[in-house]
Structure formats: C-alpha cells, structure tokens
Amino acid sequence: MKAADRYSQRAISYARYRWDYAPAAVEAAVAECGLTEHSIIADIGSGTGMLARHFVDRVRTVFAVEPNSDMRGIASQTLLGCKAWQSIDGFSDATTLPDSSVDMITVGRALHWFPPDSTRTEFNRVIKPDGWLAVFSVPCTDQGLVESLKAIRTEENGWNVAADKRQLARVPLSFYFGHDKLLKRTFPGLVRETWEDFVGRISSTAPCPRSDHPLRSKFERALREVFERHAADGVLVVTFATEVVFGRLDNFR
C-alpha cells in the first residue's frame, strides 16, 4: 500500500482524535523565523490541516500539500472560507509549487513517510533564498504508557509492523536542513482521554488493524487492558509535548 493511501479510511478519526499542536509552538516558529502577514508557507503532508490551520490567520498564503483526497477533503471543509488556504494535490517530492516560491516549509507527523533524497531536492527547489524549515512533532512523554503500548504492537495482534514509523528508515533532521545548527523548542501538554478518545487515537495510526481486520478484536482487547491499567475512573491522563525544530535551509541548488 502506498503511503498516501494508508489514511484513506482513517481521516475522520485522525481529525477527531489526534493531539493538536500547541499554539505556543507555532507562535515560537512565527516569531523566531520572522514570519509576517506577507509570508508564504508550504505545509507538506498537510493531512487534515491540523498544523496548517494554525498559520492561516498569520500569513498571506498557506499551500497545503497533501496527496490523500480524504484528508484534503476534511481540511477543505474545516478551513472553508480561509483566504490564505490553498489546497494542493501533491507529494513531498512533487509539490507542483513554483521554484523559490515559499518563505517557510512546515512539516508535521508526515515526515517519516517522505522519501528523503527526492524530498530534500524538492524542498530546496521551492524555498526562497534564506528560507526556513520547521518540523513539528507531538510525542507522548508518559514512558509507562509508551512501553505498555509497545508491548501490544505486534504482528500477533494485527499490528502492521512494517508500517510502524519507528521501523521505517529515517534520516536525521539535519539531512533536510543541510546542517545541524538547529533550534528546538518544547512545549509540554496534558490531555484527558476516555476509552473512545484513546481507541480512536490509536486507530487513526497507519499500522493499527482496521475494523475489518481478522485480528482487530484481539488487538482491541489488548488495548483495553492497557487503558484500564493506566486510567483512573474511566479517564486516562496522558502527558505529551509539542516539539518544533527549525532553521534556515542550506540550499543545494
């Protein structure tokens, strides 16, 4: 299955249950990278618009580049009427954007799906001289919960290990920037999840067995055990952080 197709039946759950990016992280990137109301951003792998929507009232244009039509559809509904929003059917290494056209490239959770070499070439093609790249992530910081989930993410439970981002070939962030003089800001957060929230969030991930998978019920039983182990009175309190790493691109043109 192509990476672009993995979320075709998960887009609604993704939009509803994934943790949002902290506004303070966006504010830090805007301020430290000197973005203004005249700036142009390309959000690559924009999905349901979860990251890009934080920028639409801050800059002139947000090109939201996303190959999955279901996710683009949700983003377009959510951001209908936003003048800055422009939805683009494209890939990380084939954005269709003009040369030297954007002041900043933003990337969220989709980075691990990108083919590194061709993506870096495309980033350097579309960025303006001295343009910026900002990479956002939202990791769970509750290590006990992380370890409990890791234990049930197995092929025996229907988990698609090959599609697990922890198993995908990854390159250091410095590869995309062309240097390692990067700035990083971290903004802690906390969320309270019911069972519906928890199973919805996990189900929105690409490796999770879908509802029609023969091992779905087995996986869900194991997931319920994890929830009951860490929750209190039917509510799971989870700590996480929004991390943003940013810097200027050292163009390879």
Structure characteristics:
single chain, 253 residues, alpha/beta, Rossmann fold, 8 helices, 30% helix
Please give a structural write-up.
The chain is of the alpha/beta class and 253 residues long. It has one domain: Vaccinia Virus protein VP39 (Rossmann fold), CATH 3.40.50.150. It contains 8 helices and 7 strands; from the N terminus they run ααββαββαβααβααβ. 30% of the residues lie in helices and 22% in strands. It has a 7-stranded mixed sheet with strand order 3-2-1-4-5-7-6, with helices on both faces. The N terminus is likely disordered. The radius of gyration is 18 Å and the shape is globular.
In the CATH hierarchy, the architecture is 3-Layer(aba) Sandwich
Q: Strand count, sense and closure of the main sheet? A: 7 strands, mixed
CATH fold naming: Rossmann fold
> What would CATH call the homologous superfamily?
Vaccinia Virus protein VP39
Parts with pLDDT < 50 across at least 5 consecutive residues = 1-8
Overall helicity: 25-40%
CATH class: Alpha Beta
Can you give the mean pLDDT?
A: 92
Radius of gyration from the CA trace?
18 Å
Approximate strand percentage? 15-25%
What general form does the structure show? globular
Distance between the termini: 33 Å
Output the structural class: alpha/beta
Tally of individual helices:
8
Task: Summarize the helix and strand pattern as letters.
Answer: HHEEHEEHEHHEHHE
Q: Tally the beta strands.
A: 7
Q: Looking across the biggest beta sheet, what order are the strands in?
A: 3-2-1-4-5-7-6
